[in-house]
Every structure is written in structure tokens, then in C-alpha cells.
Amino acid sequence: MTTRDLAGDLRRAVPGLRGALVGAAPLAPFTWFKTGGSAEALFTPADQDDLATVLAAVPREIPVTVIGLGSNLIVRDGGVPGLVVRLGKGFSEIHVDGTHIRAGAAAPDVKVARAAADAEIDGFAFLRGIPGSIGGALPTNAGAHGGDMAAILVEAHGVDRSGGPRTYSRDDMGFSYRHCAVSPDVIFTHVLLQGRHGDAEAIQAEMNKVTAAREASQPIREKTGGSTFANPPGHSAWKLIDQAGCRGLTRGDAQVSPMHTNFLINRGAATSADIEGLGEEVRRRVRETSGIELRWEIRRIGIA
Q1: Is 252 in contact with 35 (CB distance < 8 Å)?
Q2: Strand 64-67 and strand 38-44: pairing?
Q3: What is the distance between the alpha carbons of residues 12 and 17, in angstroms, rounded to a whole number?
Q4: Which residues are catalytic?
């Protein structure tokens, strides 16, 4: 990567900066795989105004990348050039008002599901099965167990590449399966969600069901990145991977989970190159055996 002092340049350009800004910051500790290189500069804004001010000061030629809880992310070993934004405590609030929930983009999905259950709001239990944060769930229209973000979103708020505020209704999001149409340059900051009044015992039973299903079928105690590939239309990714003979397949210390073939795991000493390379080998074998092209659901950023 470049030898410029991006963090220093931004501190000088934004003397009123209130968040944390660190140069050459390791990113592996922030990912569930625990692999990958460093950010050229890592910024944790204090709040939306702080984020907007810094984005407005970043020259257009410098890339800006946002990360969340790192649950569905591969940071490549060469690191991430430009500014990496990681939303923290200033974006983790959760407020309940009737059947509405306002949540910051850094709020973990599971905590939003818990807040909804405590308030007897139905429609949020699926979030219990999605590792990650609300901000990460929006671009992928994350879903599980019969629910997805499109079903509960009222509006999403964010900041664009120039620091300008943006607001999107559910229709504006252009949701489809594991996708939304909003520009990836927008950093989501908070959302308004809506469920419906429900029965406390029934909601808790649904939460327990989601938890049990996840623990029984997914390698949640491993260093993993969650679901690796999106399900192709009419197919289950895990079945295609299994039929291609990839269950337990390894590359270096990366492995296709023997428990759930649509999960890759780091057995301890894998590099990001091992994990991504294993994923590409899985895609190749599935393509050869079924003629179907698997699409990565895990986000991959940085320089290989």
C-alpha cells in the first residue's frame, strides 16, 4: 500500500475530529475469521455528524470502506487501502416506541431481536439467527427462518461519500434476494423498523426455535464468516457444495465445514488467501458438477 500518512492528513484537515483515527490499524481482530491485513487508516466516528465531516474531507480518489461486526467479511492479507470506517458505540442505540424500533447501524442483530421480544413485538425473531449488525444486514437484505430486512424496514438513514445525509424508504432500497439497490458508497447509520403486536410466549418460542436450529446446524463456535454463498434460484448452496464433494475440503488451515457445507472455517492458522482460495475452489467444483455459478455472500475487501 501507499506510504502516505492518511490518518495524519485527515487529522490536519479535520481539526475538530472527535472519533478515533488510527493509521496502519490491524483489522484481523475485528473479523470473525481472525485473518487479514491492516487498514491504511481506521476511523471510528463519534456520531453521524463526525462521520459526515470526515467523509467530506476525504479526497475523492481515496477509497472509503465500511465494516461492521466482521461476521460476514474477509479482509485480504494485503490490507485495505484508503479509509476504513468502523461504526461503534455512537451507532449502537436501540429505542422501542410501540411496534417501532429505532436502531443504530452498529446494533447487533441479536440485540434488536431481543429488544423486540422484550417489548412483545413480533416479526423480528429471524434476526436472532443472523450474526452481524443492522448496518450490515441492509445492503444484503439479510434474512433467515422466513424473515428478512425488507419485511420490517420502514426507512434507512445514511451518509453518502461527500458527507451528505440520505434517507431511503423501503421502496427506495430496491430490495431483492440478498441485495439492495442503494449505492455501496452510502454508509448506513440508523434505521426505523416496524413489527406487529405479538404474544410474549409465542415470540420467545420462535426465538428459541431459531437459536436451537442455528446451534444444531451451523459451526457457530468456530472461526467462520457465516453463510458463504447465496442460494441460486431453486437450489440450496449447501446441497450443491455437498454434491460436488466439498464437505470437509481444506486449503491450508481453511476448511469447508463438515457440519454445514456453506460455511468456511479457520481451523487456527489459515490466511485470508487460504479461505478465499478455498471458496473459489468450491465454486469451481460446483460449476463443473452442476453448471451452476455460486455467488459469494461473504464480502471480500482489500488487496490479496
Answers
A1: no
A2: unpaired
A3: 9
A4: 178, 227, 297
Distances (CA, A) of 268 to 139, 252, 265, 286: 30, 10, 9, 26
Mean pLDDT of the chain: 96
Q: Where are the beta strands (DSSP E) in 149-226?
A: 153-159, 165-169, 187-194, 196-197, 223-224
Predicted local confidence at residue 1, as pLDDT: 65
Measure the CA–CA gap between 179 and 60, rounded to whole angstroms: 25
At residue 100, does pLDDT exceed 90? Answer: yes
Domains defined for the chain, CATH in brackets: 6-89 (3.30.43.10), 92-216 (3.30.465.10), 219-301 (3.90.78.10)
Torsion of CA 218, 101, 124, 257, to 10 degrees: -10
DSSP classification of residue 239 = H
The three cell numbers locating residue 203 = 415470540
For 209, the enclosing helix (H) or strand (E) is helix 200-217
How confident is the model over 35-44, as a mean pLDDT? 98
Q: What angle do CA 188, 87, 16 make, to 5 degrees?
A: 100
- Report helix angle 109-118 to 200-217, nearest 10: 150
Burial letters 77-99, b for 16+ CB under 10 A, else e: bebbbbbbbbbeebbbebebeeb
pTM of the model: 0.94
Residue among 24, 20, 22, 21 at smallest CA distance from 2: 24
